[in-house]
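2.7 Reproducibility. Because tokenized structures are sensitive to small changes in the input, we list the exact sequence used for Glucosylceramidase, including any N-terminal residues retained from the expression construct. No trimming or masking was applied before prediction.
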Amino acid sequence: MKNSKKLQILLLLPLIAVQIKCGSSKNAVSNSKAEAWITASDESSKLKKQNDLVFSTETNSNQTILVDASQKFQTVEGFGFSLTGGSAQTILKLDKTKREALLQELFSRKSDAIGLSYLRISIGASDLNEKVFSYDDMPEGQTDLKLEHFNLGPDLNDVVPILKEILAINPNIKIMGSPWSPPVWMKDNGSSKGGSLQPKYYQVYAEYFVKYIQAMKSQGITIDAITPQNEPLHPGNNPSLLMLAEQQAEFIKNNLGPAFAKAKIKTKIIVYDHNCNKPEYPLTILNDPKALPFVAGSAFHLYEGDISALTTVHNAYPNKDLYFTEQYTGSGSSFENDLKWSVKNVVIGSMRNWSKNALSWGLANDEFYKPFTPGGCSTCKGALMIDQNQNIKREVGYYIIGHASKFVPEGSVRIGSNISGNLYNAAFKTPSGQIVLIVENDGTAAETFNIKYNQKQISTTLNAGSVATYVW
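Resulting structure tokens (single pass, no recycling of outputs):
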């Protein structure tokens, strides 16, 4: 009899163990926590970790953001800034120890870093260089049809060295190149400002791009994507170029695309690279059956138009990628206004409209918003302001992008989440399986709300104009 009871107990032990395990698992889920990181509109908190929030099954009447991982959208390539020549020059002025610490903070995935994963650089000078140059400048009246004088020029002194230091920290960072102007001798007005690329130089200019990508590769720098022209409908900057949609289509299908194919260049060609008010520009190129195969996607800025323009293009060509490549913060705006607007539109807005990245404009400048070219942007505020005493001030752009880059690495997938009232948001699942929710309170009062995921929820409050990133 004793042996029989002992046998029954032994047979029941696995079932008891399963019940205990299931029970403990259930408790673990119901007690799971979410991290909360907040930047307040009044600057009282800047990307600062708060007390953890606890998921529970309790219900209430609060508005709710429902996060749904079964809804999957685009894969994220990264968040970051433009590493302008001026940015590189400004960062290089830091002593070695300070510079190394800053680059680790910006580009590593350490707990005290913001993990930038995407950079845009200019092909030749942008307007945030101290002077205008191309990679093949010639004396007036002379040309260089064989590009025998091509070289990376001033970039070898600042952009290339800083990129090498960044790549040592994050070898997988994505880099996009964009020209502000071709060499002046290729243009119809003989000036770095405005004018158009002469058709007789289309092929030479295509070879110029090939040489650029190969020259950067020889420095150990892979250019993942290029755009044929920064802001092609804004010829008033210095440098700049007017390039109409039909011209860009001709250049891509007859010259740039075939040149890349011949040289076995894998760099993506991304069209447009200008404001959201003209989705017809990229659509004109994508509608060209000969240009279409060479085009990987379209890029946008938001100085005009609505961020939904990206979805307009996505709906027409769902197999072509979207990119958000530039938005500046200005010296005349407030921390509060820039934080609200840019997180709502540049970060959350671009992500909810299929963009694979979100980039702000210059990474760094000095205390006088320099350097910039004659006629370039004198009010563009970098994410960092570095003064002559090597003091580093983290400006609003640092926090706008940091709220995404720190928590949403390359390879994350945007997942489903609903806009609830004034609470604009975007949700992601990271490669490691974490869920990330970025929320901006666009209202004028504090909002109390729930975040619901897998039948559990947390309740929290976010002040007006503030931004939070929740991670679990």
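The domain at 30-73+417-471 is CATH 2.60.40.1180 (Immunoglobulin-like).
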